Amino acid sequence: MPAFRQRSLFQKYFIALLIAVAAPLLTNGVVDAWFSYRDQRNMLNALMRKEATAAADKIHSFLDGMRVQLGWMAQQAWTAGAEEQHRLDALRVLRLAPAIVDITLVDGAGQERVNVSRLAINRAPIGESRAEDPAIVGAQANGVWYGPVTYNNGSEPFMVMSVAGNRKAAGEVIANINLKLIWDVVSAIHVGRDGQAFVIDQPGRLIAHPDISKVLRGTDDQAAQVWRNLRDAIAQTGGAAITTRNPDSRPVIATTASVPQVGWTIVVEQPQSEAFAPIYAALWRTSGLLLAATLLAAALAYLLARRMSGPIHLLEEGAEKIGAGQFGHRIEIRTGDEIERLATRFNAMAGELTASQERAERMARLKRYLAPQVAELVEMSGDDSVLAGQRAEVVTAFCDLRGFTAFSARAEPEEIMRVLHDYYQALGAIVSRFEATLTSFSADGLMVLVNAPVQRAEPALRAVEMAVAMQDAVQRLISGWRSQGYAIGFGVGLAMGWATVGRIGYEGRHDYTAIGNVVNLASRLCSSAEDQQILIDAAIAQAVRAEYPLVALGARHLKGYDADVAVFEIVRTTDPHDPIALANAARN
Amino acid sequence: MANAASRLVQRGVDVIVTSSQPAGRAARAATSNIPIVSVVSGDPVAAGLAKSLAHPGGNFTGVSYYATELTAKRLELLKEAIPGIVKIGVLANPEVSYLPFEADTHSAAAKLGIELSVHQVKQPADLEGAFSAMRQEMVQAVFVLPDLMIAGEAAHIAELAIENHMPSMAWGGWFTESGCLMAYSADYAEMNHRLAFYVDRILKGANPGDLPIEQPTTFKLSINLKTAAKLGLELPQAMLILADEVIE
Is the confidence metric ipTM above 0.85 for this complex? Predict the structure, then answer.
């Protein structure tokens, strides 16, 4: 599952890095957007409040202007003959203030004295009492009085306004005012591109609107309800701009300002689409930037994660190859960090493994013909030169089974292999124990060298001890075999002398061997030895005479030798616990 | 006028615009589908052109001229300009007799205590006869009623009025400019300008029946002091105070 692990590591790095970069960015962006939204919203609120207040001021000025114009007419006392002067004053006001449609002057006693109109025939001064007129009562109480808005012919908004003179004798002025002229005031107010301002009266009816048609359509109860609700809602927020739907069902942001003396309300509205356009634009911008930043972060995270997981992947691959035995593989990582150090350690390990494997192979080779201890020794020296060809005085030992050929002709292969197995098992242990060098074996025959390639003290004695041990061990086996009816015996021949020793063979298949007369002699001695016999030549006999009882068998003719050769037999001491040995000793 | 209106209807125009009541009336007679934007004289509701000023309801809308409504005011102003006047000659075109100009003039005259002598002029050629008749009747001033033909004869009327030593009261600033003594009316130019607003709204998809008929807000009194001098007339101060335009 290396691919899975690689991906998962990459994923972990990628996600961690992405979060590390993108999370602060996103947080910053969102917080920024929120504050920007709040600021924009506050700015919009302030702007609309300002427009509404400015509009209210203008309406206020309009009404104030009317009050001043009218008040100007109520300054002269109604003395006899003052009527004409008052009439001319009224005409002057009519001329100056186009919004005033008619003017009625009332004297201090509440009698109507002058009436001038822009449209109708002036009423003759019939002395009608207006004392009970709410306009007169209101003006007398408060100095100025504003009547309710009425719609002329159900269309044009009008309002009666009355102003009291500065003293009782000056009487009062009542004027009918065409409110359509406020249109000039409100149509001049623009909030943004599509924002507008308009005026509603106390019941919510439109008095002035940039679209004059809306006003001239007269009372619209449904719209009035909407405006009243809006006015109340804004009043509740303390004058903040709120989002709502106007009577045309358009989503707008609106705020109000009031003209308290007449109970009118200025509504300033702007389509939400326009009002929030900068906010939306800012949000879009922020989103775009965040997206770009996130993509950049992702790319960065991808690259970094790959830089981190890539070398780890290489390490893993390398470890896998080395594990599979490709010790020559080297991990190439140049990151200059811990991972490179780790790769270097891996490579060093691979080198050590190579060395170790080579050593193991050499050991295996050495152990083929050297006893393990000797092989270890040679290996430790780290030098193969001991195996090089040289002349050395060696003891050559040959041994083989008697009657094996006849046995192998009769016996089953399993049986033959079992016998050979036990045989070599026994001999191998002894060869190793005596640190002799096994040069070759074939079927039941075995050749062993002592004193080469490693020199030993008293090689002849050691070789004889080994031969005795061999004979003892194999004889124990033979007694078992005989009980099974196999007529098998075992003989050993030893000879000592100079021989050429060294490694022979070819690449990958080497043997250590000895060449010389001593080899032939030992082989011949073995051949002439009977069961239980250990035959030695004169050189060995000379060397072990003091240690072992010998029987001189005289000179024998050996095949390949012109002269007869002196042959001796080792007399084996009898193991008192070995019945076979005792029997043999008795027979001898 | 009716032919012209039906030709426009046949051409399938998007909107018909007229600046006079008779033309608007002719268009309304020719179609009840194509939006008509017109100047209205008199009460459009009474004339059957609209259901109400606030909601005309049909294909007709526009600006009211107050032409008939101001008749009484004009007569009053004429009386104020020439104190003690008792007999006034009236020029009227019977072609527009469907509008209540004459009736309004009669009722106003009754209120003001003035005797009227109405003279029908169907064509410019009738003016000379009308004036000589009025002189014989010893009228003290001439009162011009609204009509397109009469509007076109403003200079002729002014000339004849001065010739016959009669102060004249008409219904548009151009009469005063042409030599009539005085005129009182809504601001005609402003109203024509206002028609454009209706056309704009209708072309943008508004239903003419939903566009309220507007009434004029500003009125102008114009006085020609040169004519007054020619007539040897001293205008009272009230007139001079009220006058928006004075030609000296």
Answer: yes
